[in-house]
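U., I forgot to send this yesterday:
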Amino acid sequence: MLCNAVPEISIRLGQNEVGTEQQLVGIKPQLSQHHGWGLYSYHLAKRLLERGMTPVLFSESPPDLGAAAAAPVRAAIAYYQQAIRPVLAEMSMSNRQMKAPFPVLHALFNDFTLSPSVIDIGPCDVGSIFFESRGFTPDGLARGRRFRRIITGSRWNARVLRDLGVDDVVLRHQGIDGQVFFPGQRGHCFGTDRFVVFSGGQLHLRKGQDIVLAAFAAFHQRHPDSLLVTAWHSPWPVTAGSLKGSPYLTCLPSLREGRLNLVPWAIAHGVPGDAFVDLGIVPNHALGDFLRAADAALFPNRGEGGTNLLAMECLAVGLPAIIADNTGQKDLVAAFQTYPLQDQAAVDPGLSEWDMTDWGESSVEEALALLEDIYTHRDAARARGTASAAAMQDWDWTAKADAIIEAILAP
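Result:
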């Protein structure tokens, strides 16, 4: 063991006593195919298994993997989850917390907040953070300093934490699944005569879907063959309320059976119903074919703690991507042949209670101009997309998960 601690409770996984044979690594975030943390955890667990290590999943809910995971990976994850579940149940019933005698990766949010858990921060533990608001409090910084190491997902996050005096901070970018996101022939699931613009991400102020609607509505007036395809749903539809102060919106989308009713909302903001496609909730493993059927991607996101996973996946399939040159997304603009939104004004501080320092308000006019450029110069746009896809091969999850694992295990 690289980090020795006295366990508060005995844990057995199969025939192996903790720390006796295999290297165990705890993973706090739940595995899922429907949000960024879930994918981060899944690919980390998968790579640990491939390297002969044991992922210990500290989520009391079963992993949400579906058919996307290979059968051996699903079986191994289910086995280890079943082995740890009695321990978690015992701790919950006794209202106790445990400190694991092996490294555990915790998911951290703005101000180093953690989700409630029976798992306390142990001396071996590492925190992984993607924060959008740099408004850290003294209590938050104290929480962060309890971790042996902090892993960040962007140069922006790393710089802010180092400036705040957080000691052991390492940069480890997230990855893409090269089995799903790869270049290929343009698909025809949206027809053969449409210019398809893709926009994805949880509906939220910082994701900038209000800017997307404004830019696309103007673009469609010029080009009636254009089609906006969206993946804006998430498990948390309530976050759409963050858009209430947007200067580009007259209303928010309604809820229908617990889901956002997006088509009438788009129509209310100038996008005809036959020029808007709501993909619904798409599991990550099914998204690649949709992206390969698009002509451009638009990401005027106001703030990203990481590099913007969906933008990375668009680049990996060779899709010309318009990306805001701010916060964590700067890493993509610097590394790949994107179409950067460089006109980044300060965000109106009245739009949110968050500290939005370093966020950027992308220009609708610049987004419109870049869409026009891609539409008019399609061969050049495809060449730029092909170059980005080739460069993105170095960002496959296998290599990125290895780097994260080394950061967790390194002394």
